[in-house]
Specification:
Oligomer: single chain
Radius of gyration: 19 Å
Strand order of the largest sheet: 1-2-3-4-5-6-7-8
Distance between the termini: 36 Å
Strand content: 35-45%
Largest sheet: 8 strands, antiparallel
Length: 152
Amino acid sequence: MKRAFLSLVILVVVYGSTQAQIRKVPAVVTATIQAHYPKASSINYEDFLTRYRVHLRTDESKGGDSLIVAISNSGQIKSVTTILELTDIPKPVKEGLDKSKYRSWTVLSVERIAAPATDLQYILGVDGGTVFTKKNLYFSTSGQLLKDRNTL
């Protein structure tokens, strides 16, 4: 009985500490997000110590995209990921997928990543249908497969 109670207490403490924000979000980070996305809603900040990941929805009156913004502690935007619908895969990327060895795999997700340091890229989350065959495929805007990465 004591062991079960102790296990429960440890579980509650560990869960609570993993869900807690480590520190307050710097004002420069919130100000940058507010300046770039003044009509954003559902803003959620994730602390990664050296940077933040901000999940938000853009202005609903203009379509309301779901975005993930990677931003440094100093307020510099590192990348913006737009979550796309499966039907929004650009034609060159779709053609690139059709020419690759992953053409028969099921597309699970589509993201567009814009970062100042790199060219615009598309990431397709695909599933080969068996255990341990999920991958993220990185494509250029011209449809060239740049790399593939295993994922869970």
